[in-house]
Specification:
single chain; 438 residues; alpha+beta; 3-hydroxy-3-methylglutaryl-coenzyme A Reductase, Chain A, domain 2; Alpha-Beta Plaits; four-stranded antiparallel beta sheet; binds (R)-mevalonate; NAD; hydroxymethylglutaryl-CoA reductase (NADPH) activity
Length: 438
Amino acid sequence: MTKPIHGFSKLDKSEKINWLAKNYLNNDDSAISVLKQYWNTNDELQKLHDEFIENTVSNFYLPLGLAPNFRINGKYYVLPMAIEESSVVAAASKAAKFWDERGGFKASVLNTKKIGQVHFLFQGEFSRLDKLITKIKPKLREAVKPITRNMEKRGGGILDINLIDKTSELDNYYQLFVNFDTRDSMGANFINSCLEKFAEVLQEEAQQNPEFTAKEKELNVIMSILSNYVPECIVRAEVSCPVEDLSENEDMTGQEFAEKFIQAVKIAEIEPYRAVTHNKGVMNGIDAVVLATGNDFRAVEAGVHAYASRNGRYTSLTHAEIENGIFKFWMEIPLALGTVGGLTSLHPLVKLALDILQRPSANDLMKITAVAGLAQNFAALRSLTTTGIQQGHMKMHLMNILNQNQATDQEKEELVEFFTHHTITHSSVIEQLENLRS
Ligand code: MEV
């Protein structure tokens, strides 16, 4: 059995790989080659990537695709999307073109508040705690001045600090609930630094407060951390057009399409099993842009899904209706994104992605990202309610199957042609490939 290793982080990259191969990969040289094959030949660039995280042994590539023709508030964008799932970029591009021909997307930022909390325990009289917090608010703000100065110059900073009594849900539990404006940065480091300072001051002030009992002086900070739930950092994306303009061919009228589409959205609104998959489709678009622009997709995912359940039942993020002959499709979601700080100036591809988007502000990026999500959901529902999803998916999947089976360019060409007239399944592709080869 493999023994635990001490000091793994002290080994250099090759030593780490050799240890891995020896202990977990049967000393397989080809495994080592796979890892090394992804090292960048540019040492400086490789070093940059090595230093993003700890114990780096290689790079993990994702394709970066482009979805052009996104008209958002009258301006054209090409969206950089980092994603491994075939057909997402194609679907986004298709939806962009569809809506470009019908007036484009509209998007607006409704608010941009970020939230952080100091979670603490206090055993005593609420009124005395409340009095202390009111008294020390200026002190709390003063204590974080070195952290907030630059943010304030950019128009952001701390919006308000509130004491929240949570003792009805958990004994002795209170919060300092703080709202922040972090301008163009996602603001995680800024918020957490402020919160930790608040915690320090809060604890000191409690200890020194002559009005507190001995027990009250033991005010105990449990943790200080931002919240990835940002229900007041909301962006709205929408499209609309006359119902008759939705029709693309004789198979379905605009009215028929709209009604079926709206029904599909309504199902996701009331049925959580469907809502999760429906929203997963939204996140296909959102995550791809979030990743390409160096933002934290885990934070976005967590926040968005919490928002989707804010009324006690998980529901659709998107909504649709027909009003006075106009089809409307929209979504409001929380997106805490940044276009400065973090990876944005460090990762060359992230920098490039932001250049591709014409160096957006955080608000612009919220709009673009929300539109990517809405477009993706539109594309998915359009396929699902008309041709079915597999037709498009399997076309893209065909290439993956061929690549997995080392098909030559000639074989690919012949089989792509063959499968324009035949149903694609994994087994039928393998069968045809074998036929060709025999
Ligand atoms: C697949 O990645 C996403 C879909 O399942 C979304 C949906 O069902 O709406 C197609």
